[in-house]
Amino acid sequence: MESKLKVAKKRHPKFNVPNYGAKNRKRVLERWRKQRGIDNKKRIKKSFTGAEPTIGYRNPEGLRGLRADGRRSVLVHSVGELRELLENPEDSGFDVMIAGAVGARKRAAISALAAQNGIKVTNGGTA
Predict the structure, then answer these.
(1) Which residue, 80, 126, 81, 84, is CA-closest to 105?
(2) How far is CA 124 from CA 3, 16, 42, in A?
(3) Which of 39, 42, 100, 127 is the most exposed place for a label (fewest CB within 10 A)?
(4) pLDDT of residue 66
(5) Which residues contact 94 (CB under 8 A, 6 or more apart)?
(6) Is residue 51 within 8 Å of 13, Cβ to Cβ?
(7) Which residues pair with 66 in a beta bridge?
(8) How far apart are the first and last CA of the chain?
(9) Higher pLDDT residue, 108 or 67?
(10) Do residues 50 and 18 lie in contact, with contact meaning Cβ atoms separated by under 8 Å?
(11) Dihedral in degrees, nearest 10, Cα atoms 118, 121, 126, 127
(12) Please, which pLDDT band fits residue 26 given cuts at 50, 70 and 90?
């Protein structure tokens, strides 16, 4: 029942933030921002500045949204949402992720229903 398939997604380099090598790097957050300065070397794609996110790093459509074990992850907010997923037979092969705003009582009910139907809860289940 459990698939042993490992999904081979494309790898990409770490997209460095500009000025990350500066002395004040503690204040430079590790997130990507498109460069817009007129003298910016990263904007004019100098090779020594490192890679930029481009469309070529995107995964094939069939692999997008899949976890490493080859299963799809579905966000669930209520027991009703999980029941709807279970009623639809073509939606097989998924794992459940319970939304962060869900409280402990509803979280326990969702994880109990998932356990009855053999569905894995990826973020812990009960609080």
Answers:
(1) 126
(2) 20, 32, 41
(3) 39
(4) 86
(5) 71, 72, 73, 74, 85, 119
(6) yes
(7) 72
(8) 27
(9) 108
(10) no
(11) 180
(12) low
Please, which residues have CB within 8 angstroms of residue 107's CB and are 6 or more apart in sequence? 98, 125, 126, 127
Contact 76, 98 (CB under 8 A): yes
Burial per residue of 11-50, b for 16 or more beta-carbon CB atoms within 10 angstroms, e otherwise: eeeebbbbeeeeeeeeeeeeeeeeeeeeeeebeeeeeeee
One-character DSSP codes across the chain: ----PPP-PPP----PPTTTTSTTGGGS-S-------TT-TTTTT-GGG-----GGGPPPTTTTTB-TTS-EEEEE-SHHHHHHHHH-TT--SEEEEE-TT--HHHHHHHHHHHHHTT--BTT-S--
Structure tokens at 32: 């990507």
Averaging pLDDT over each range in 7-11, 17-21, 99-103, which range is the top one?
99-103
Is the pTM higher than 0.85? The answer reads no
